Description:
By secondary structure, this protein is of the alpha/beta class. The chain is built from 13 helices and five strands. The chain has a five-stranded mixed sheet with strand order 3-2-1-4-5. Helix 10 (268-276) links the parallel strand 4 (254-259) and strand 5 (280-284). Helix 1 (13-24) packs across helix 2, helix 2 (30-43) packs across helix 3 and helix 3 (48-55) crosses helix 4.
Amino acid sequence: MGDTRLPPVVLSDTERSTLEDWARRRSTAQGLAQRAQIVLACARGWNNTRVAARLGIERKTAARWRTRFLLDRLDGLADEPRPGVPRTITDAQVEEVVVRTLEEVPAGGTHWSKRELAKVVGISPASVLRIWHAFGLQPWRTETFKISPDPFLIDKIRDVVGLYLAPPANAAVFAVDEKPQIQALERTAPVLPMLPGVPERRSFDYVRHGTVDLFAALNTATGKVITKLSAQHRAVDFRDFLDEIDRQTDPGLAVHVICDNLSAHKAPVVHKWLLAHPRFHLHFTPTYSSWINQVERWFAELERRCLARGVFCSLDDLKAGLESWIKVWNDEARPFKWTKTADQILDRICRYCDRISKPVH
Length: 361
C-alpha cells in the first residue's frame, strides 16, 4: 500500500525506459544504478520505509532521491558538484597544449617534451602529461608504414589469402623465404645464469664466427618446415631448395609455393626448373608485403627461441643449433591459423590510405 502523505511518483514512458536501463547496466556508476532503482520502487507506490528495506539502504536515502527526482526529474539523480581545489588550468591553456602538440614543434626539435611545452604554456609538466593522456596524444612515439606500390596488389592478396583459407584439393601449399646472414655470435664472456630476482646476463660485445643462410618452406596445412642451409642465397641455391621440396613432398600432389619478389626467385634458371616440374606453381606476394607470407611468422619464432639468446662458438655450432631446433619444431609442429579474408585486408588498406591522404588536423 502507498503512503498517501507522500507525493506520488509518476513516470513518463521515456523516464521509465531510461531508469530501467540505468538500473540494469552495472557498467553505469553504482550510485546512479541504485538511484534509478529507488525511483522505480517509489513509482510502484511504495513508501520510503519499504523502499529502504527492499533495497537495503537508509530510509533518509530513499527520501532524498524521491524528493530530488520530483524536483528535477532525471537531472536530479546526477551528482552535484563536489567541493575541492579550484581549477587552475583554463580551457585556453588546454587548447594551447593540444594545438601546439599537433601543429607545432619546438625550435630545433622534432617533437615536444612535457617540460618544453609546459615552459611555453606556463603550466606544470605533470599537467601537460595529463592533457596528453586525456586527448590520446603521445608525441614521444612514432611508427613506420609502407603502402605497396604493386600494380597487382589486389590480385596477389586474393591469390595468397585464397591459398591459406581455401587450399586446392590434392595439393601442398608452402610459404617459402630465406633468412640470410644468420650470424654465429659468441659472447666475449660466459653468460651469467638467471638467479631469483636477477635476469640472465650476457656481455654486450661478441665475436662473430661467420654467417649462414637458411631456406625454409612452411607447410601451411601441417606447420612442418622443410629447410636447407646454404652459404649464399643465389638463384641456383633457390633452385636447389626447390629440388629439396620436390624430394620431400608426395609426388602425387601439386605444389603451390608462396614467395616474395626477390630477383633470385624469378631468374631464368628457376624458370627453366619450373618448366621441367609442371606440378610446381609459384605465387608471389605483393611488393613490400612480407607480412602476408606465413613463413615470416615462423622466422620470428626461430629468432625468439633459438637465435636471439643463443651462443655459438663456430659456424658448425650455429648449424647444429639450427638443425636441432628445427627438428624439435617439426616433432611438435602445428600450423599457424590465418583468419583475415582478402576483403577484410583490402578494406583495411583502403581505410588506411584514406586516412593518410587527408589532412591530419
